[in-house]
Amino acid sequence: MLVMPRKTYCLFIILLLHQSINAQIECINGMAGIYPCEGMNLLAHMPMSDIGGGSGNDIWGWKSPTTKKEYVLMGRTTGTAFVDISDPVNPIYLGNLPTHTSNSSWRDIKVFNNHAFIVSEATGHGMQVFDLFQLDTVTTPPITFSSTAHFEDAGLAGQVSDSHNIVINEESGYAYLVGANLCNGGLVVVDINNPVEPTYAGCYSSSGYTHDAQCVNYIGPDTDYASTEICFNSNGSGGFVIVDVTDKTDMTLISATQYNMRQYTHQGWLTEDQEYFLMNDELDESRNGHNTRTHIWNVRDLDSPIYMGYYESTLAAIDHNLYIRGNLTFQSNYRGGLRILDISNISNADLEEVAYFDTFPNGDGASFSGTWSNYPYFDSGVIAISDVGGGLFLVKEQDCVDMQLKVVMEGTYDVQIGEMENGLSARGLLPGQTPVSGLAIATPAGQPYTANTWNYGGTEGRAWTDIDYGTNTIDWVLVSFRTGQQKNTEIAMTAALISKDGSVDFPKRCALPELSNVDSVYVVVEHRNHIGVMSPRAISIVGGVLTYDFSLEDSYKDITSFGQKQLSDGTWVMYAGDGEQDDFPSYDITGGDKTIWVDSNGDFDKYQIPDYNLDGDVNGADKSLWDFNNGVSSRVPK
Predict the structure, then answer these.
(1) Is the pLDDT assigned to residue 16 strictly greater than 70?
(2) DSSP state string for 480-518
(3) Across residues 206-219, what is the average pLDDT?
(4) Where are the beta strands (DSSP E) in 66-126?
(5) Three-state SS across 11-66?
(6) Which of these, 570, 483, 558, lies nearest to 524 by C-alpha position?
(7) What pTM does this model have?
(8) Alpha carbon 53 to chain centroid, angstroms
């Protein structure tokens, strides 16, 4: 085998990071090419050199009402790049709007009424206005564009030279320049209802510098502020500030709130019902030494926001910009890449990461490189990601099959109550749990099917602890899918969890994207000390859902073998007692399974193979199960 020298390999990775990708790359086994991922496919990658050069910063999007094409607007140190993504696998760089004055690492873009509004920290830059309909008419890209209009005159307030950010309330038609050279760095309000003739409307300076904000026509639950316009400001060292901006000549402070261990309140976004606000702090990771934290606020009472706590990632990366669409938040966390969290349980301050795409595969540390921002609002579902050094990435959620599976295991199933008993999880014996008994030895984290016989390399459960397991969890199972009955037709496999009612829970939101390409599959469920089962026929995938309940009928068998055992209440269960799991070409319960029971008889408070009834102890109850089932053989092909 040819082994690539380390220096050559590193150079190879660097070259890949700077090459265009114009072909969809599926996220398979946690990677899309060289990029770590989960549940997200890479559609295209355009390095900075392909979109005008410089370094990347902000990003926004626009859909033409005329051609229905979708476009990316990406800020760079030297200007703004415009990219046609109507074919997201083959994006086209249309051209560049140069910076109004000098280069800057900070450029920010928003869209209103088919115009882009662009600010920068470059001295003398002001606000550029660009008619986006020009993008529909480009025939010989790339070209150099010119501004349609420009704003800098704030009347008696002075000239707008530079701004860190621009915020637009698309419902009111007002833009808010923040972190500008005027107004103490607070809100500089511009009326943009006529995009090509923006006019100064007001200034709010009482709360000092504002780094970023979201300004909305208020529809939230606080009736004191019904029919008002409110800005939710991230004020850096000034914390979280809420301002009533309804009257642009008399904008008033509603509340200013701090939180423990605050370093630099950077940016945030409201949930769509305007009841909660998610916030990032750009410096708390590097200064406090903890992992990425998303701060959670209850803003049902605007006068008294309640800090609810935070979600902490498993990575040390710095968070930068986040947005919310429906029950998902899309977070650009520098070296951590794009992280997507489910916020449907935000009322309990409970967020869950469900997908990610890491644009910076060389590390996840607390440094200012990697993804700057993202735009998750395209109708097509394409998510555009800007990366400081890497350029533009276009990704999309994988087509996922919703798997509704159920299987029941003998030994732990109680016919009197109609469900399985969770002896292992109740005693803290599952991999990664903390044992309840001080005499027990903790089981190392990770699904148990990496061992010989299965040799499954999945990372499910690798870093799990007590909080990751549900209270109803029974054990890990191994689930695979075949287009035919033979093992060599297997197209996908994943470790999963079985609950007391028999439902199979998959740790990954999009566990098996391979299933989206087939119409029907045979379902196989294996367990570390029960006989494996296979559905008696191929199960159809209907409307993106795969549904099958092993407990309702016997599983696959031939005339010489067994499928499942039917209990007195009519439930079909997997046979207990197959501890060796090394029988080929199928599953068998033999004397070898008794031998491993003998070797462990008397052990207690352990996660062990010969614990056939899954209660945490190896004793006569487990031998009884083996006695009943000795000689049972399955012909499910292994």
Answers:
(1) no
(2) EEESSSSGGGEEEEEEEEEETTSBEE-SSTT--GGGGG-
(3) 98
(4) 70-76, 79-84, 92-98, 107-112, 115-120
(5) HHHHHHHCCCECCCECCECCEECCEEEECEEEEEEECHHHCCCCCEEEEEEEECCC
(6) 483
(7) 0.78
(8) 29
